[in-house]
Amino acid sequence: MRVDLPSGEPEILVSSLTDIQAYPTALFADLYFQRWGVEEDYKVLKSRLNIENYFSVSVEGVLQDLHAKLLTKNLAASAIHDAKRKIKKPKKNRLYEYKINFTFAISQLKDNIVRFTMKLAKFKLYELLISKISKNLRIIRPNRKFFRQDRRKKTNKYPMNYKRMC
Asked: CA dihedral in degrees (118, 121, 126, 128; nearest 10)?
């Protein structure tokens, strides 16, 4: 089915749902937009936590690595929840709203996960981390749109001969 984007460019979506009366095109346009939350979560897992690369070759080691990365993500989300309470009220003259930087939260927690899970860290360390996380904010820009170049048509001036493995 064809969905016209706000820019006027058509987007072609493929579905096995063929009953147009039960599933109108407008419904798919809204569903297509709602998937971005899931896509952003995949981005965190793949690029921030590097979930596709494992440090072990055994099944047990890969599962441990996978679970450790998912635990890190969940602890970062929990820390962000705690840090939201510490954010001071923003000034009224700010142009945009702000939210906590998830990547920064992960970077702050990754070196201390073992300390927290083994109960080696004191509560002061957790409070210090929450304080640092609550101060690192990023701007929320609603309705942000960029013109994206088609990478398939762009020739690289310096092509990459080898892909990075880790």
From this structure: -150
% of the chain exceeding 70 in pLDDT: 86
- Determine phi and psi for 159, rounding to 5 degrees: -70, 150
Mean pLDDT computed over 118-126:
79
Task: Report which residue type is found at 51.
Answer: I
CA 91 to chain CA centroid, Å, is 27
| pLDDT band with cut points at 50, 70 and 90 for residue 9 | confident
Of the candidates 84, 11, 76, which has an alpha carbon nearest to the alpha carbon of residue 41? 76
Name, in order, each residue with C-beta under 8 angstroms of 87's C-beta and a sequence gap of 6 or more: 98, 100, 134, 137
Side chain identity at 8, as an amino acid letter? G
Number of other CB atoms surrounding residue 129 within 10 Å:
20
Does pLDDT of 53 surpass 90?
no
Nearest to 115 by CA among 80, 85, 75: 75
pTM: 0.67
pLDDT at 109: 84
Q: Are 80 and 100 in contact (CB under 8 A)?
A: yes
List the domain boundaries for the chain: 52-140
Measured CA to CA, the distance from residue 73 to residue 1 in angstroms comes to 36
